[in-house]
UniProtKB/TrEMBL annotation:
Residue ranges constituting the BPP domain according to the UniProt record: 17-336
GO-annotated molecular function: inositol hexakisphosphate 3-phosphatase activity
Matching InterPro entries: 6-blade_b-propeller_TolB-like, B-propeller_Phytase
A UniProt-annotated Pfam family: Phytase
The EC number(s) this enzyme carries: 3.1.3.8
UniProt KW Transmembrane keyword: no
Enzyme class: hydrolase
Protein name: 3-phytase
Length: 339
């Protein structure tokens, strides 16, 4: 495995950066999910399925890393719960005949696994397909990538120590086949990741360092390219969840949970240049803080979300347990016009 060369420079930048309390635009949450059943650090990462025929019946999936995985509707009401030990990050792909859901499985801290499900969209339930080994270590992050040229499905399992195992997911048979096809490495703890199906680029958050980009194809080199660093101002450690707002062939935004100052930082694609940031709060629903996972899906989700739905984990939902907040992407875009 090839380690990216500029680690020392990025780490030095992080060591000298001092967090700055910048004023950020605030966007109110439109809805919130039912709280998870377990206390303390429990809710973690969301995924979104958009119902193209009836956007109001779209669904949100969210992990409770102490107990299992939930399915919510657009009002935030929990529609189902599937028990599973220590699922962390979750992602999905709608491949036409089925909606495939994958989660990082931390039940065995010595050996990472991928837990696979199909989403029964009519009943808003998850049907387990099994759990499959990926590689040694504790599985933290998880994201999926569907290769444009042939539709092949891959997953990226981000281990706590910064290793990233890429797995090929073959769904041709009744029982899925999951095979580790390559590994990449970052220097310190990492978790959040997102892959761009259009461009074949994988983005990974190294929590105290910044955002890195890899080529997602398993035949590509494993060298990481630094694209955004933790600087204590635009991005404050820990850098956690990642999400994409694609536009055209390669444009749009990369969104990062800047956990250290409770903001969400936007970078303009394809060059990953800083575009702005926002916070969630100021409405009748409480805001978010210490956000782990985020997700974003564009398109019409009904009158409350005409341009897309942004979902963020809320690390402090007191007096209730943690949950997830829903935000209109149209309202986020308005904050960029204010800059």
């Amino acid at each position: 495995m090839t380690r990216a060369l500029p680690f020392a420079l990025l780490l030095a930048a992080c060591a000298t950066a001092t967090p700055v309390s910048d004023v950020a635009p605030t966007v109110a949450a439109t809805a919130e999910t039912d709280p998870v059943d377990t206390a303390a650090d429990a809710a973690d990462d969301p995924a979104i399925w958009r119902n193209r025929q009836d956007p109001a019946k779209s669904l949100v999936i969210g992990t409770d890393k102490q107990a299992g995985i939930h399915v919510y509707d657009l009002t935030g009401k929990r529609r189902s719960f599937t028990p599973a030990a220590r699922l962390n990050n979750v992602d999905l792909r709608d491949i036409g005949a089925r909606v495939v859901v994958a989660a990082s499985d931390r039940a065995d801290k010595e050996h990472g696994h991928v837990a696979l499900f199909t989403l029964d969209t009519a009943r808003a339930t998850l049907l387990p397909l099994g759990r499959y080994p990926s590689g040694a270590g504790e599985a933290y992050g998880m994201c999926l990538w569907r290769r444009a040229r042939d539709g092949a499905l891959f997953g990226f399992v981000v281990m706590k120590d910064g290793r990233i195992d890429q797995v090929a997911i073959d769904l041709a048979a009744a029982t899925p086949r999951v095979t580790t096809v390559r590994s990449m490495k970052l220097g310190t703890q990492a978790e959040g990741c997102v892959a761009d199906d259009r461009t074949g680029q994988l983005y990974v958050a190294e929590e105290d360092v910044g955002i890195w980009r890899f080529a997602a194809d398993p035949a590509a080199p494993v060298t990481a390219t630094p694209v955004a660093k933790v600087d204590g101002r635009t991005l404050v450690a820990d850098a956690e969840g990642l999400a994409l707002a694609p536009r055209g062939r390669s444009g749009g935004f990369l969104v990062v949970s800047s956990q250290g100052d409770n903001k969400y930082t936007l970078y303009r694609l394809p060059d990953v240049t800083f575009a702005g940031y926002f916070r969630i709060g100021g409405g009748t629903i409480d805001g978010t803080s210490e956000t782990d996972g985020i997700e974003l899906a564009l398109g019409d989700f009904g009158p409350d979300y005409p341009k897309g739905l942004f979902v963020a984990q809320d690390g402090d939902n007191a007096p209730d347990t943690q949950n997830f907040k829903y935000v209109s992407w149209a309202e986020v875009l308005k904050t960029l016009k204010q800059r």
